[in-house]
Amino acid sequence: MSINIFESFKYCLWIKPENNHEWQDYCIGFCPHMSIKTNINFEDLNKYNYILSDKCNLNVNLVGELYQTKLNNFYALQYNIELDTDRDQTPLWWPENPHISFRYKYNSPFSKKDIKDLENIIKIRSACLNNICFQNCNGHFNKWEIVA
After folding, report:
1. pLDDT tens column, 38-75
2. Judging by DSSP bridges, how do beta strands 145-146 and 99-106 pair with one another?
3. How many CB atoms lie within 10 A of CB 87?
4. Predicted TM-score of the model (pTM)
5. Which residue, among 40, 57, 56, has the nearest Cα to 48 in the 3D structure?
6. Which parts of the chain have pLDDT scores under 50?
7. Is 27 in a helix, a strand, or coil?
8. pLDDT score at 5
9. According to the model, what pLDDT value does residue 59 have?
10. In the prediction, which pLDDT does 3 show?
11. Quick check: helix, strand or coil at residue 49?
12. Contact assessment for residue 83 and residue 23, using Cβ atoms and an 8 Å cutoff
C-alpha cells in the first residue's frame, strides 16, 4: 500500500487574474496565480492584511518559455512574469521571482509533450492580476481553498 504525501505550502497569499480571463481554462484543479507569499502559519495571516486589502490592477506579461519545477514529489509548470511598468508601479510586496503557475502534478514529471501541448494552448500572454486572496495550500492541490 502506498501513501501519498502532498507538499504543504501552509497558507499562501495569491493574486489571480480577473475572473473571466482565458488563463482560468488552462489550469486543472486550481486557479492560475502568482504567489505573493507562501508557507504562512495560520496565526500569522493577519500580518498580511495590508496586502489583502490592496485594491490593485496589475498588468503582467508572460516572459520566456514554459518551464517545470520540482519540489520533492510536487511538479509545476509555470511561466515567469513581468509587471508592465509602463502602466503600473511595482507594489512593495511584489515577490522576487514572480511567476504564474498553470499546472501541478504529483509523483512524476510532466513530459516534453505535456509542456509543448500547454505552450501551444496558451495564446494570451498578458493579464490583469486583481484578485488577492489567502489560500489554504495543505493537502492535494485540488482541495486547496480560499480562506479570505
Report:
1. 999 999 999 999 998 888 899 999 999 999 999 999 99
2. unpaired
3. 10
4. 0.90
5. 40
6. 1-2
7. coil
8. 81
9. 95
10. 53
11. helix
12. no
Query: Distance (Å, rounded) from C-alpha 148 to C-alpha 146?
Result: 6
Question: Cα separation of 82 and 63, whole Å?
Answer: 7
Reading the block at residue 137, the C-alpha cell is 495550500
Q: Which helix (H) or strand (E) holds 120?
A: helix 112-121
What is the pLDDT, as a whole number, of residue 55?
85
pLDDT, residue 71, reads 95
Residue spans of the domains in the chain: they are 17-139
- How far apart are the two ends of the chain, measured CA to CA in Å? 37
The phi-psi region of residue 110 (left if phi > 0; otherwise alpha if psi is between -120 and 50; otherwise beta) is beta
Q: Nearest Cα to 30, choosing from 81, 74, 66?
A: 74
Q: Report DSSP letters for 121-146, one per residue.
A: H----EEEEEEEEEEE--SSGGG-EE
DSSP run (H or E) holding 102? strand 99-106
pLDDT at 4: 61
Is the four-CA dihedral 115, 40, 19, 50 of positive or negative sign? negative
* Dihedral (CA of 95, 66, 138, 109) sign: negative
Spatial CA neighbour of 95 closest among 21, 7, 15, 11: 15
